[in-house]
Here is the input.
Amino acid sequence: SSEELWLSYSQPLNNKLKETYTSKIKHIQIKTFSETGEIIKTELQMLATKMLDTSISFTSTTPQIIIAKIDNLDSKFKQKINSQSLVNNESFIIQTITVHQKDLLIITGKTDISLLYGTYCFIKQLQLHKDISSISITDSPKIQLRILNHWDNLDGTVERGYAGFSIWDWHLLPGFKKEIYYEYARANASIGINGTVLNNVNSNAYILTSPYLQKVKTLADIFRPYGIKVYLTARFSAPIELGKLPTADPLNEEVIQWWKSKISEIYKEIPDFGGFLIKANSEGQPGPNTYGRSHVEGANMLATLLEPYQGVVMWRAFVYSEQQSEDRAKQAFNEFAPFDGAFKENVLVQVKNGPIDFQPREPYHPLFGAMPKTSLMMEFQITQEYLGQGSHLVFLPKLYEEVLSTDTYAKGKGSTIAKIIDGELYQDHRITGMAGVANIGTETNWTGHPFAQANWYGFGRQAWDPTTSAESIAKEWLSMTFTTDSLFIQQMTPLLINSREAVVNYMTPLGLHHIMNAEHHYGPGPWIANMSRPDWNSIYYHRADSLGLGFDRTQTGSNALEQYPKEIQEQFSNIHTIPEAYLLWFYHVPWDFKMKNGHTLWYTMAWYYQQGVNEVKNMQQTWEHMQPYVNNDIYQDTRMLLEIQYSEAQWWRNACLLYFQQFAKMPLPEFIPEIP
Ligand code: GCU
Here is the structure.
C-alpha cells in the first residue's frame, strides 16, 4: 500500500493537546447509514488510533459530536445552526453549540458528501493543532467541477508522468479492486476533488468499448461514496474506430446515432457518469475540423446527447497548427473567441493557464475575460512537464495563485481570473470548473518527488477556493505532512514559496519560454531548431540574433498583445512599463538594452540565471537543518533530489548563457563562475 500523503496522522503531538483532543472526540454519533457514513467512521477511527492512541465509540447516547445531514438533525440542534449558509450540496458547517450547559459539536450539510468534507475539515483542525473548543467553520466550494485529468494510457504508461506508471490496472479490472483506488479516492475527497478523467487527452478509443466500460464502472463505483465522478476522454474519431463508420462528421446522422447509443450504454453502467473531455484538432488529434465542422458543432453534438443525463463536455482550447503562419500564442484565441455564446450550456471550454504550454511563467491566456458567454474552465498542470519533472522541487500553488489573482479587467478593475472561473463575474454562469493534469503514479509516495505531493494538495485547495493563498497552503501541507513545529514551518514555508521563482530564474527568466530540450522537455535546449514543426523549435520562441533576444508580440511583431484588454495593452505596449517578468515574451530586446537595474539585458539575464542557481543553493542549506523534523527516507531523498536540482540549475545557466552569448557577443559578468 502507498504512503498516506497528508493523511498519515502521524505528526508529533504534545501530551496536553492529545488529552484535550481525546476528551473531546471519544463519543461520536454518525446519523447516516450510507457508504459515505462508513468512510467517515473509518477515517475518524484512524485519526483516533494514529494521532491519539485511543478509539472512538460511535454511539447515540450522550455524543460529544454529531455528524448528520441538516434534515436529520433534531430540531433543537438545528435551530442553533445557520442552515442558510449551506449554499450548495457540498457546503458544510462545523459548529459548537451549547445544550444543557454542555458543548456539542455538530458537523452538518445537505448531503453525505458534505458531511465527509466537513469531517475532513474537522480532522484538519486537529492536524493543525488548532483549538477546537469553540469551533465554528462554514465552508463551501466556489468551483463546481474540481477535476484531475490523468494523462494515463491504457498500456499503463503516463504521458508526461514522472511518478511511475498508471495506477489504473486495466488488466486486472473490473474483477480486482486494488487498495490504491480507495486510497486515491480518500486523498482526493480530503481536498475536495470531485471528478477524475481516467485517460489521456491523446487517447485511443478503446476506453469506450464495452469491456473497458465495465472496468470504468468498477472505478466509478469505488469513487462514488467519496463524492468523485468519473469522466473519460473520448476520441473524436471513435465512431470510425469502434463503430466502423466511414466518417466521424458530427453532423452525420449515423455518427450521432453511434454516440447516442454509446452514451446510453455508459449511463446504464454509470448513472452519474460526469461526461467527456475532448482534445480535438490539436497536435494531430481528430476533430470536427477534419470534416469542415467547427469546434462548436463538434462540442454541441456531444453536449446535446449528454444533456438528458446531466453530463458535460469539457472541450479543450489547446489548439495550434503548424499550417498557420500566425504566432502560436494567438491561435487558440483566434479560433475560440469568435464562438463566444455559441456553445451549449453543458459545454465548458477548458483553457490552459497560458497561451503556450505550461511554462514556468507565462502571461495569462487571453481567452480568460474574452468569452463572457461561455463557461471557461481552468486547466493547470500538476505534473511538472516543463518544470524539472520528477527531480526539481517546485511548489506550484504559487504559480496557480499568480494566474488566479491576475486581473483581466473584463468587467473593470478587480476582474480576476479566479472570479471568471468561479463564475462570480458572470452570474448567469451555469457550470464552473478547474482541471489539473495529475502528477500521480505507482511510486509508493504517489508523486515521485516527495514535495510534489504538495502540488496535488494545493491544486485541490485552490480548486475548492481559487482565492486560497499559496502561503496558507504551504503551511497546511507542511504541518499535515510533517510537523507543526514552528521552526520547521517558518523555514520551510519560504522555501516552498520561493521555489517557483527559482525555477523561472534558472530556466526561463524575463519572459523566455519553451527553450527546453525537444520532445521530452527536460533540461535546456535553446538551440533546438530542427523539429518537424517550426513551433516545436526553441528558436521559434526566443528569436535570438545579433540584435537581441525575445519574441516581438507587439504591433511591430505578431501583435498577440492586442488579444489582451486595453489596460494590459497600455502597460505592456511600452517597453519601459511592461513588467520585466514578461519582457522577452513580448519584445525583441537589444542585448545592450538598459534594464530597470541600470544594467544591460545581457548582464541582467545572466544575473537572473545566477540568482536561480543561488536560490537552489539556499534551498539545500535550509533543508540541511530539517533532518530533525522529517523521517530519514524523506530527508535523504529530498537531499539527493536537491543536489540534482542544484547541478541542473547550473546546467541550465551554463547552457543558456553559452548559447545566447554567441549572439550577444558580450562577456559573461564577473559573478558567473567559470563555465567548464
Ligand atoms: C503538451 C504536452 C503533450 C500534451 C499536450 C496537451 O504539449 O507536451 O504531451 O498532449 O500538451 O495538453 O494536449
Notes: The chain has 20 helices and 16 strands. The chain has a mean pLDDT of 97.
